[in-house]
Amino acid sequence: MKKILLIMTGGTICSFRDSTGHNAADVGKAAPLLIDVLRESESPMKDVEFEIISPLDTLSENMSVEKWNILLDAIRKVRLSDYSGIIITHGTDTLHMTSPLIAEVMEGSLIPVGLVAAQKPLWDEDSNGGENFIRTVEYIAEINRNPDGYAASERTFVIYRNSDGICKLHKASELERCGNFSEDFYSRNMKNLQKILEENSQADRMIPEETVTDISDRREPKLYHMSALKSTVMMIDPYVGIDYDTFDISRVKHILQLTYHSGTADSEKLPAFIKKCTAAGVDFYLAPVPRDYRYCSTFGLISAGAKPISDITPWAAYAKLLVEDAVDLPQEHTLG
To answer: What is the pLDDT of residues 205-242, one digit of tens each?
Structure first.
């Protein structure tokens, strides 16, 4: 197997205690420690070679569109064919936002891309970072062993061990935000990684019929056909007492209004704001909205001009809007 490109960006997985006793990112110290964890394991992939680059050194709560551009530029400068896969270390706070962004810009890539995080620093014996990293390396090897058995949507992924001790495999585009007072990640189609590896070790994976077109549709990723991302999207989370008059829409192209769990938002205050945005030339999106939404409030928002987005997380919708504003080619996918 070819070497793996290891992209260090920071986060808890790359953090150490600073002079104040608090965790701070230090990718220079973390990179050799991360690889030592693999080398000292019993993994069949413990001797795989890595090329390491460190375009960022940040805690993920400080991630920004500008830092995303630095990360994307770093990937754009390498020749993907030199590697069997890419691993990106990242913090947990904004992992759910960077993951769908990477899935969006790398769509069509032949090589797998995994994002790795940890709930505690690597030097902490209770950290899941080492296992997350090892399993990510092994999963990249599995995809390389049977490349036609994995659809494009499965080639960008997150592997993360929850507090129940089970490593979950997530499509990067579907990862949900880690809840407050929690260190676990979930997604709607997450799978038990160990069961997948055990099944695949016994027999080659069969390609589901519905993914054949997806697999054959390999093309150069959007990453190579886009300019820098810009902050063109305002994301609004609903809450009781929200005052839409306080939002300045003069510097954005899109409003992405998040919904409550049933696909709803305030249908008494919001319609006037939707019409204000439309009159100003600002697109207004509502996400996520079930295709079979049941509430008159949702119907009222759509009737006022909101464009509903279904079947993806709000974080994936945010990434798609940013990328579509930056991409230089006609888009095959729409959000409506």
So the answer is: 444 444 433 444 456 899 999 999 999 999 999 999 99
Torsion, CA 171, CA 176, CA 179, CA 183, rounded to 10: 10
Q: Give this prediction's pTM.
A: 0.92
The answer to whether 117 and 92 have CB atoms below 8 angstroms apart is: yes
Residue 155: CB atoms within 10 Å:
25
CA atoms within 13 A on the CB side of 6: 24
Per-residue pLDDT of 29-50, as tens digits, reads 999 999 999 999 999 999 999 9
Distance in angstroms (rounded) separating the CA atoms of residues 172 and 267:
32
